[in-house]
Amino acid sequence: MRWLKRIWAARPRLGPPGVVWANRSWLAMGLAVGVVLTILFTNGVQPLFRESTEWEKGKLIVLSGRDQSDDGQRRALINQWNAEHPEHPAEIVELPLEADGQRSEMIARAEERVPNVDVFNLDVTWTAEFAQSGHLRPLEGVDTSGFLRRPLESCRYQGVLWALPFNTDAGLLFYRKEFVREEPLELEEITTVSTKTLRAQQDARLAAGYAGQFADYEGLTVNALELIWAEKGEVVDETGKVVIDSDRTRRALRWLADGLKGDKPVVLPESRSHTELLSTQAFRDGKVVFMRNWPVNHRVLQGNQQESAGRPRLDFEVAPLPGPSALGGQNLAISAKSAKPRAAKALIEFLTSPRSQQLLFERGGLAATRGIVYQDSRVATEHPYARTLLRAIENARLRPVTPYYSRFSDEFRAIVRFAIDHDGELPAGAEQSLIGALQGR
Amino acid sequence: MEDVDQRRSSTAPRYAGAVMLAAVAGHLLSEAATGSLATWQSWVLYGIGAFLLVLSASAIEQLNRLVKRIRLRWVVFTAVLVVAAAVIALAAPPVIAYGRVLLLGCPQPTEVRVLTSADVLPAIGDVARRFEQHTAERNHGCRTARLYVYSAPGNLGALALRSSWSSQALREVGPHPDVWLPDSTTETAEVVRRTGRVGSAVRIEQGESVAFSPVVLAVPAAVGRDVVSSTPEKWGELLTKVAGTGLPIGRQNPLTSADARLATHALYETLEPAVVERRVDEATRLSPASAQITTEQVLLRHNKTSCPAEPCLIALYPSDTYRADYPVNLVEWDAPDTSNHAARAPARQFRAWLTTAEGMTALNTAGLRPSRQTAGAEFREEHGVQAGLALDRDEAAPPESAWPEFQRRYDQAKRDGRIWLTLDASGSMTEQTATGDTRFDVAVAGVRKALTQMGARDTYGLSVFSDNEVRPVIPLGRRDRDAAAATLSAVRPSGGTPLHQAILDSVDRVGANDAGHISAVIALTDGEDTTSAHTRQDVVEAVRRKGVRVFVIAVGDASCAAHALTTITDASGGECRDSTVDTLGDDLAGLFRKLWGGAG
Fold it and tell me: Is the ipTM of this complex over 0.85?
């Protein structure tokens, strides 16, 4: 207790207790000065720096991957903006198709000292990295009502809103109608239906039950996460802790590893080298009963389902995946260095407005980020899978939110590849490597 | 005693304490005003902070008292200050850096963009990953650089650098490179000269070659065992021998690919150019049933990764062969919006690392032969290659002055490109795109652009297909560029899509390859076949029989994958491209450039 007394004795002396006012006047004066300075600052100085609300004039540069919508609907929207706002024209600088290449160029440009970009069109998994590196300006004073919950969540990092969702995506389960009576709810049901169909030998073209994207690229991360989630396993929990080492995770990986084996396998062995396009081709060729893919392939398949060129007609249906899907899509964010943040914000709000979202979905096929679009009857006739997709998006999950996402994805894929080759077992130190990756190591 | 002390030193700490309290009060008010003290936790934190501030005032007072007891206190004070400053200066940066890593994770690595060729991309990718790990070794496990390695088809990378990386290059090739690692030093010289001029936005600092890989003839293992001999043989002798077995011999376009150019140059020394050009076909991929002119590292990787057992292919090393020699050039951009200054230091570091023992081992493991290290364990017969080389030439490539003459001889000897283009004129082509033009308009504009790629002796013919007819509109053999656009402007698209019929008709019209011509068919369609009497299988068999390469460009509702258009193009040795209305012109032009052999 003596140290306590000593600290107390050593407290700053604001004057001996006897002489009350004279020596405590320092305290009073200090308080008074503080109060006056604060009032001066909040009322006199701050307003000088308060931003004006007028949009800055000049060209807005949007950095984005290639327009993948049908017939260039994104371009059409930008043209419309330019016609309505000739003093704030927007220009899209198109980057290569490959997402990694887009990211690389965006990061390099963001590092420049001069302002060279106003709006980034970011993949959902990049928000954390760009925000943490200080490349983005927080979005303030925007109305976020009406956006779907999940896509909007992907725009936030550490409680701050950095972007607005431009378009969204969720994986769907495509299946052949003639073989499947009810939508499968679990991986086990996919296995049962597949083996039954393969054994019955109804269709000589059938080579396996299920096709996914298991080539070594981001598609493998997405597909493996979804399988693990379908078995109610986890890789990284909500608090950011790595929990990959569990029975449920192992079960999902074993399902995949075992599925790929055998004479009539559950999982199509070629899908280890498949990307989205090749899966679609395998499904159209009648090689599988089920396929996991993005909804954009629904249009492709629907356009070609008629019997032709020696291939019988394809009757298919879509359902949500057995577990949650990994959320896809892109978000629009303002560059921290932009000299035109107010005009850029207006452009982002225009591109994510209900009308723009309706056009992008209805004519361009890019899934809307606003719930109301899915209620539209024209959208429903144009894209019959819209309701199912909405369900999948609402139920979708974000891939781990970390500024080091690409490191995480690299390490995770190495683990999954090992598991596929070793009956679903995890490599030694899997957990450690993921913990390191989440810290950028 | 204590009381006396206190009275004497009482004003200073009181003064300090008051000012601090004033600061705390002011700050408190402003924080409360802006609303950042919203939760109870923030109030607790604020309280602790203020307490520490006040406590530090007493610490100063204590110290003050202590100091007064020391003799020569100014000397001691200065000495302590100097020592403390030195300790802080030395220890603070690493301590802060480590603390930062522990608390916040690694700082983001610097982005470095590495452009290389498609052939060496996988190997350089492996080496880049090793370098990233190397940067982490002395940095608390944090990588300081991230290398994005990508490739450009053919010589498009060099062309894009010469044009200071236009917006089209950005869209089609990739991001602006910071490091350029081409196949051969001969590729760099001209680009360096062109970009060195005043006013160019790009500056290329030419670098040394870090590794090499000899140009070899890859042959299937069975054939290889028959033709291999113990005495050294030249390119000409090997080619003649392998061609004698009836095996087709593939080569990339010598104008766009370094290995093909180096091998062809050596071949022209011993064989007549025309003979060489008749014996080789254009092919880009290794295949189990043909020979291919390629680099050793491509073959080694193929055997290691896509070959179930034994070496699928083995390398024949002509004694007079040249080498791909991989120089590491640094690229610096002067435009203020794309300079990427931050990447320059790690790019230099990467180049320097490649010449260290660790770097050379990484190159070796990736299948490249470092300039100053002997070939590693990867180079063994199970992988179809040899560790020891006996090559005649010291230089990696012929001198630059030899290339204009080589190009002249190649242009004379090469077979002329003969292309039949068939365009979809079905009803769906009238659909409007975002710009207001119809798909057909976009296609016609693309054809006009593509025809600018025509070489001096190349020719073309053109047909359109709709309903159930295929209508030839320009006969084969035309060289007139404007004829196509003029004729097509009169076409009114309508009806169905007889794609199969159109391909079969085109294959017949263009005819098979002969001594003087290389033939190809390009079909542009926006939908699946709807009205042909022929099935896809008929088309596949026909193109296989005729040996004419078929290329398909799919736009709009058409899709290479879903329509299995690739089965037709694969059977013929061609390819199918999914295109959009935005990229149609570029895709078409790229295809014509490839087929007519133009080097841009």
Answer: no
